[in-house]
Protein 1
Amino acid sequence: MLPTRQLWREAAAGYPPRRRPSMSKSRDMMTLLLLLLFLCETQSWAASKPNFVLLMADDLGIGDPGCYGNKTLRTPNIDRLARGGVKLTQHLAASPLCTPSRAAFMTGRYPVRSGMASQSQVGVFLFSASSGGLPPSEITFAKLLKDQGYSTALIGKWHLGISCHDPGDFCHHPTSHGFDYFHGLPLTNMRDCKLGEGSVFTAAFRLLVLLPMQLIALALLTLVVLKWLGLFRAPPCAFLFLFLLATLLLGLLLGFLHYFRPLNCFLMRNRDITQQPMSYDNLTQRLTADAAHFLRRNAETPFLLVLSFLHMHTALFSSKDFAGKSQHGSYGDAAEEMDWSVGQILDVLDELKLANNTLVYFSSDQGAHVEEVTVKGEVQGGSNGIYKGGKANNWEGGIRVPGIVRWPGVIQAGLEIDEPTSNMDIFPTVAKLAGSPLPQDRVIDGRDLMPLLQMRTQRSEHEFLFHYCNSYLNAVRWHPPNSTSIWKAFFFTPKFSPEGANGCFDTHVCFCYGQYVTYHDPPLLFEISRDPRERNPLTPTSEPRFWEILEAMQEAAARHARTLQDVPNQLSLGNLMWKPWLQLCCSSLGLSCQCDREDQDGRHSP
């Protein structure tokens, strides 16, 4: 539409008058113009928002991938990821156990702040019908990104609870924490989920069933002998009572063994059970196909994909294409299958030409479980490399995990960074990149990784990091300003058993208090930067600044403690125990809970 002034000029010059466009036609053109501007703005906004693919292994040791020094376990795709990005060599899990570590990863906060750190020996959820879990008040990075218009999905393991008060509230479920789509295992993979692989409850069986059965048998034998000697004649009801008690205990044991697997080892798609009990047949392939489908379906919009592997937690499993192919038995087979899955995801990003606009992160929730050895002597735990300890303790082997970040064109390929970083750092990093402000009503313990990854700074923003064993402050790490030293002070350490071992083999995991630990006063001090194996504790004689260093670390611990608030303990005995009214079941036939609605190609993601 020409301006009025231009029409006047044309009339003055003797041109025949132009017909003015009708108002309706003008409005149509204006609408079209606005629509084009909106589409351009939308495309510009989408292009400016990076995608995120976060890959989380379970119990993978830092010594397992080839890019971290393993020469015999084949991980070409994880290695490819490392070559194309930054390898973090002092990347630390916020906890050495699954549930608290994943809570910290999701929220950017120490798990003690959300009540996801236990005060008892049991530090993780063991039943799907527990009432504890990641509180609805917690903010995950998925919530923040969903508010920014991202499509969000979690595929694989959750292990942060399902419901609070009734089986339909799903207050702890992934879909209540910012994920548009969930497909996977709401609890965790464990030996009891796979027939013939043993049980994680063996010690409990001995204490609660076998020991009482032995006492009952001894009591029955004593009564029989006394009666035979004529010293005491027990009434028949005494024999009947002991017999019924033994029958009850045996029945409870058999019932537990029969029902545990279907009641706890099942797959869900969003809030519906799709397979109960879970089948391991091509499980990795199914979940990987679903993840790839999610990427393809959301290639035109910003997305967040968290692919949370069931590997390498026992029970170990792998498909026929990988079984028996590695040099490390069933553990190696599973690791190489997981690496294949990583490769599939990277290939899809390349296929869709999304690699340059996608930040990919790979890590493990804690170190390898070194105590995982079968009754036949097969080692089913991974390698923590040169580092001491493993899962469930805060020696470096339990918390120093693989950490790889790739973003072509934004992060320089082939870098190696030895500064202290944490899996809590992912929360503020992805939030800032997605354009989301951080919550202002709570402490965020993670730090934005981008300045370090882009070499805009040479130092981590973490001067202090605090290492918890469940809810107990176990150790403090200090990287003083203007210093290359990294100090680590332990307030207590686990008692390895048997003596001289590199783990707590007698109890299968290390515990955090009482007779299972040794308390240190003064704290046990190491210079991690010079002694990463933690073999040579320092003394006032070997380190002149010994007391000065400890004083600074204890003051930091005291300041940190003042930032903590009392919150409900999500891992209390009451929240951990099985509650029948919270049990999810895909059928109405009592506790049989048998169904299979899994699509074998995994193509269900939105």
Protein 2
Amino acid sequence: MLQEGAHGKWTVSSSDESADENSDSEKPCTSSLSDATCGKTSGPQYPCSEARKAAHKRKSSPLKFTDKSLSTDAPPAVKQRPSQEGSGWCLSSSDEEPEDQQKPVHKETVKEEKCDVHEEHPLNLCKDDKLSENLKEEEYNVTPSEAQDTWDLVTGGNPFRFFLTKVSGIEQSYNSGALHIKDVGWLVRQYPQEFRKKPLLIVHGEKRESKAELIAQARPYENISFCQAKLDIAFGTHHTKMMLLLYEEGLRVVIHTSNLIAEDWHQKTQGIWLSPLYPRLSKGTSGSAGESATNFKSDLISYLAAYNSPALREWIDLIQEHDLSETRVYLLGSTPGRYQGNDKEKWGHLRLRKLLKEHALPIPAQESWPLVGQFSSIGSMGADGSKWLCSEFQESLVAAGSSVTTFRKCDVPIHLVYPTVNNVRQSLEGYPAGGSLPYSIQTAQKQLWLHSYFHKWSADVTGRTHAIPHIKTYMRLSPDFQKIAWFLVTSANLSKAAWGALEKNGSQLMIRSYELGVLFLPSAFGLDKGYFHVGRGKLPDRKDSATYFPVPYDLPPEQYGSKDQPWIWNIPYTDAPDTHGNMWVPS
């Protein structure tokens, strides 16, 4: 059906969802991948959103731009490197090592999973009998001192334990200290051969045909088992991305923003929080032992218990047996349900409000301290800002200390960072990068007011301006953008489904989806001034580096210009070529 509006002409497929809460989620469609709506019979070999299917189709069958007079509008195409066979976590010291020689510097994950992984699932729980070769000298141009620097970063050289993933195709210096998985083929091939039979539990949110496909794909692997996350509220998704990794030497928790599919670890901006290696507690230790000042252990157990799954009971017991006291971040999760009373503050944006009131210091003249939200998908916000964004959600984000807020919430500037059409067009992936930005025309047209808050994606500070963000971050900054009151990296996009929405005159919080992130507060890092300094790019080589937080993109954000439009996945872009000389026609 051909339509026309503020964003030009576009075709709306009859298979598009019309429900507000579902139209822009990353929830996979459950139709067969051979359906016409999925593009072609050789579609992506994992359940995924319609936006991702369109991107896969355009990668497989690109539409070349025909007007050569405009070809100079796009940067030259960047060579896309193929995925390589390898294994384990690796902190990159260079992006330009020969692909056929790359081997991991540091391999700790012993994750094995079927090769065709659900786009959204990723709670990845696995066991290993041994922490394999924690530090291995490379066979290609990596000196022992460089390998030691890498190991130092993982074991404590990065005080925040916050990493970006490696991006292929950017200047090699910007990948120094980036964390990545060597082979993303997917997970079974990714492990060292000797660890491919280790037990693996996959927590997912699939249903019906999609669930059947997932089970069928795992059938050859006897070591893989599944736990289905219950999604009892319509349009909810299992969006959490977490790994629990058990070794002989201890337990590690990894909370990240990348789906466990190859494309998410290749040329996108993604974030990872990597825990310390938690040692086992001595036998006979009380159940409350091993807790951190941030209550991370009990909060993680509460989050896993919310699945109400016997399959996760073993992992809850294992967490109880380990010492998580070194953790310096707060866990912030969402779980589906309707919550009242004290339970309202356990999840979503009310959980963030509670943490900020209890642990953030009051900010002088705080009405002038702006909020920055950065995300890769947008849900329905309502007819205007008063419906959610500038009311209950903003009230949670501006909370600070126990003092009562005396300023008007609407006085606090809000900067929302979301890629423009040109951001996507000029990206390393070109237009197909927009497949991971599932903002639909149906939703966008209902909330044109929201676009006045939008700011461009720019990350020159980390060399990732052309690596489209799938990371999601939120923070509160000083007016000069030099200080940070708090920083959150999470799976939660800008949506009521992810963060929750108040019902029944504010007495009830309703959340549709599972989400998970970690909150960095200055007080947890021994800073009594109530703020971090903004770190530009890589962490400073200084003893007080814990005072400089490495924000992964440019500050202050630049507001959309008069000709800028937010990326909307399900309309065509044929006026200018992308970095590969192609156009975007999603249907």
Protein 3
Amino acid sequence: MATHEMEDGCLSDSDVQSSVAEILENVAKPPIMISEHDGDLYGQLVLMLIPVEKNLDEEILFVTALKALSGAVSKINNIFHVSLLRNIFSIYIWDYGLDARNAILELITNLAIVPDKFLEDCLEMLVRNFQPPGRIRGYIYQPKFRSHKQNIYVQLHEALCYITSLVPIAPFKLKDILDRRMPKVHAEKMEMLPFVECMLGLESNEIGDYLRSTLLSMVVELLVDLDVSITWGHILKEDNNKDIFDIELEDFHNAEYNPVGVSGGKKDNNPDKLDCLMVIVCEHIKSSASDGHLVKVFDILMESFRKTVLNAYRSKFSQFIMFYACSLEPEICGLKFVIFLIDIFVSKAEDPISRMSAVCYVASYLSRARFISCSVVSSLIKRLVEWCYEYCHLQAGSERINHPKSHRLFYAGFQAVMYILCFRMQSLMDIQELKSVLFHLPLEAILCDPLDPLRICLPTIVKEFLCQAMAAHLLKKPLISSLQDNLLESEMSAAFGGVERLHMFFPFDPYLLKESDRFIKPNFESWSMVRKTYTNLNSEDELDDLDPLSADDGSEDGRDDDELAGGDDDEDELEYSINQMSITPRPVFEIAMADGRVLIPSRMPARIRPSVSPV
């Protein structure tokens, strides 16, 4: 380069900057007008910036050139310096040490603030660096690389914040780039995880003021896309030794399930990707809570839930980000979430599917969330029961009384009440004030209404509810006896449940992802931990008294239970017929099969099966 040497043989920064600026000016013309000497100098500058692995001397020259270019950005032309810009925007900062990274990002930020020239290219380069180059992606989550990864994320965030503080349109340009570069469901795990982790980091700084809603919504959408692509075969095949299977999914891993996702029969690792992403998202929510920003983040998550998750009937895990966020601030977020769901259910302005989904979420959430107090549970049960009672009153004499589909909201609402009480009845009975509230609910009036909810609601829920209600003396035994004919799983009940999802959607069923389970488990109520009102009944006679369908000999034709059971093949048919159930208790009453045979499953409820929502 044509420079003036200092007396000590070194060049000053200003000398190097002036030389680089001169080179840039001398080649900013049509090629035919560029001298061979100037072309060679420019070519050397371009070679210095080729994004390849460099030795120490080459990296020193690389840093020197970057710093000189940072001071000469006004001379860089997007027409005459294409090869130079191509090399600059192809750089991965992951390949360099701290000094080189600082020099790269200084150049990028200086280029970005040049009016109407390089903003989009600079933002694109920074977002591309959310992901490390392919050759090191497999190592960045190892402990020894953790600090290096975090340092790079911090530098990228600082550069983006600096640009957005000086260029007002930068956040809007950044939004489009993030949306375009966001990994899709079939991306490799190590493409997906660092991108999402780095992107969520933006939500915590100044950029979050502009893009918080967008960033969180994009992550929720990715979680749901992964979630709905996973069949139960993925989870059960990988995890059938986990305790929760022994307790709540007994025998479930012996069933046959499709072990692949929706990728045309090709096996994938979507469960693992979702699991790791749930860890990242939960860590981010936890960090937001520590920083005092949880309520702000929660409001956006709730909006995303409403748009993306609520009616995603195949979702099995993504909804648990709401569960976890609520557990961190139960008195604010926990209460806000369930009131939000109740309001959707009772609102006539909402569509029926959203209302049914909302009340299913209410039932599952209040049953499973340990952090929701008994007093809150009691008040919300009261609100649901009052809604059901008013509905019965309004429908009195209606011509649609024998058409269950016309009353699907009522059945979903009352089934939610019974489901919650299956989990919470004993804890409510332990508090005298709440016990009094429970005994004053018009449950018997609803049960005896011509709408006849016991004929339509899921029989396993009905049976468990009645057993506990009888043990608690919440319902009168003569009433139970008068209702027994309605407890068989009628064709109407099965058809209604199949069409209207009443049998199958309990979204906070046991959480089966391995790594992220640690965020959910401490606040999750599994069926095995529930105190039932009949737990203290010891004698067989007392237990028999709770069975509203008990008969003298347990059969109609004198055959014993083994004959009625029909063998292993019949049990398989029964499993198939109820494989979309979500509630823990299995039927303890007789079920009529299509061919006239009758099956009697095990006597006491013991298992919970995961929700399998309809397609």
Protein 4
Amino acid sequence: MAAANALLGVALREATQRKLQRFSELRGKPVAAGEFWDIVAITAADEKQELAYKQQLSEKLKKKELPLGVQYHVFVDPAGAKIGNGGSTLCALRCLEKLYGDKWNSFTILLIHSGGYSQRLPNASALGKIFTALPFGNPIYQMLELKLAMYIDFPSHMKPGILVTCADDIELYSVGECEFIRFDKPGFTALAHPSSLTVGTTHGVFVLEPFNYLEYKDLEYRCCHRFLHKPSIEQMHHFNAVCRPGNFSHQDMAGGDTTPLKLESEYVYTDSLFYMDHKTAKKLLAFYEKIGTLNCEIDAYGDFLQALGPGATVEYTRNTSNVTKEEAELTDIRQRIFHLLKGTSLNVVVLNKSKFYHIGTTEEYLFHFTSDSSLKSELGLQSIAFSIFSTTPKCSGNTSCIIQSILDSGCSVATGSVVEYSRLGPNVSVGENCIVSGCSVITEAVLPADSFVCSLSLKMNGYLKYSTMAFGVQDNLKRNVKTLSDIKLLQFFGVCFLSCLNIWNLKVTEELFSGNKTCLSLWNARIFPACSSLSDSVTTSLKMLNAVQNKSAFSLNKYKLLSIEEMLIYKDVEDMITYREQIFLEITLNRKQFDLEAS
């Protein structure tokens, strides 16, 4: 099994490096017709996020980090109720129609959903999940460049239509040298990856039509009988979604976000991205125009794909177990989508040599960037990526990960931690399993193990300020209570939140929380000081963190306090980009000097 896994790793590494090389050749150059996407569109949750994305796209184009001659757009969700990635898809279709009229019926379009606030990975909250930095490349790759690179072969083998993907996942695959993934059938076409049944419970699972296995293939085109959204293991068996070892070796079954499966293991095919042809997209657009305003969250996977295939039934429209917020009109809208799409085919591209990685939580982020030897090897991730840090990382097992940062040689970063876009001085000690983002620490400082520390630039009343969110990497920022008397149920760095407020000398009042006063959480708790300098901001937030850990008083009364929710409202994207650019230029200059001295 180990040998088979190693062979798969080599195949994925070679296929991935070829795609990265091809994308590298297109960066900063005008692309020929049909060579690349006609349109790349990113969704945003609100106007602040839309502006942040547009600023970053503009910077990338100016620095020639993206292919040129492509239309890059940011499509913002309408103000009001959350509409989910399904609603965002419908909204994007309307934007395309407004911008291009009938012209877009001949375009290949990549639509990337990046409209969330990334509460489970808050270092991506301010600038967006699609702009999450990855530990490789010069300049550093972000998720956007990786997506464009991994899909580099798609546009030239695709009929006009839209490829829909999410900002926080990575699909790696290998197919035969002369083979390409084709998106040329009517209806929907989705990629499918072999996964354990446990992984299937958190993904979409395909129930495939029977197929005569004449030989094992890396790439198979199959028809889907029905699509199950986050099914139980019992449901997978009941609907015949489970595959059992057959005539071919399951060397392809290792990993991604799963543990390697044994040879005799059962498995299922899970989803990642999907394509819809232009005719289907127009049908969905007509539906959206007819309903006018959407007031509930629609899931592009659960609500579109479950309506497809000959085995689809209407029952799922009434199942709200996987819904974050149940709105009155959700069932009605789901049923209308079901009847609209019923009879539409769901074609499946089975990628037997593929892996799917999700990087949407602090736990996944730390694991994949520091401990996961498979992804490191397949994608060429580095322990020190475009940074100044003289300490040599350990060669095997857990390491730290440094991304576009300047660290003094006297600074120490423990294993399992990630530092990005930061400056750390000689007397800074970062504990294990920490995330440090956008920080500047000049004075002596200790970051306790399992700390999350992320600084944002803010524009408040015309003045530049800084605030640093600090908590535990395992803290649940989404967990909320309805009343002030229940805030004792919240936890900050593993400690009762009420105890923390006592340590910080803060009173429990409604003013302690921003936004919705019946949804109280760490996300909207006003506990983070706004300071005049970046280094003061980090130092102050570390003092409040250490006070909780040491159970020693540290009063926050004298500070202007903000919630993370408010930080995102006040964020100064331009200053954050400038800070990153300053680090970039300093590293570039340092490398040039080093090269001169070496020669």
